[in-house]
Amino acid sequence: MEGDTFSGLGNGTQVDGKILQTFQKNFDQVQNILDQNRLLINEINQNHESKIPDNLSRNVGLIRELNNNIRRVVDLYADLSTSFTKSMDASSEGDFSGALKPDGKAGHKRNRPA
After folding, report:
1. 2 pLDDT higher than 50
2. What's the mean per-residue pLDDT of the chain?
3. Among residues 9, 84, 94, 109, which one has the fewest Cβ atoms lying within 10 Å of its Cβ?
């Protein structure tokens, strides 16, 4: 698949197979985190409904873990957005080589307005 190009965006733009692999990898990571979050939320709800002090105390750590997972999802989507933008910029110039770093990550983080 490496080195292949695909024109599946509907506008005639070709996408490098390596870029698609990177997107798929990130989407898989996001899905795994979201699945884990579903389990955490279920456990948090059960602990809350039980009203057992130890279970309620455990929720503090579970909620922290949930918040960290949400941050990871946001970061992964930000990386995907940056990668997609860079790949589209590169494809409009006919050059895929600068779209992603060799490790498959975007070259920079997105800038947020102050």
Report:
1. no
2. 79
3. 94
Q: Which residue has the tokens 């995907």?
A: 80
Query: The tokens 């992964």 sit on which residue?
Result: 76
Can you list the alpha helix ranges (DSSP code H) found in the chain? 17-50, 53-92
Burial of 37 (0-12, 13-18, 19+ CB in 10 A): middle
What is the band of 78 on the pLDDT scale with cuts at 50, 70, 90?
very high
Q: Report yes or no: 73 and 34 within 8 Å, Cβ to Cβ.
A: yes
Distance in angstroms (rounded) separating the CA atoms of residues 58 and 23:
35
pTM of the model: 0.66
pLDDT at residue 7 is higher than 70? no
Please report the pLDDT score of residue 88 as a whole number: 80
- Give dist(CA 85, CA 65) in Å, integer: 30
- With a CB cutoff of 8 Å and minimum separation 6, the contacts of 104 are 18, 21, 22, 25
**CB contact at 8 A, 104 and 22:** yes
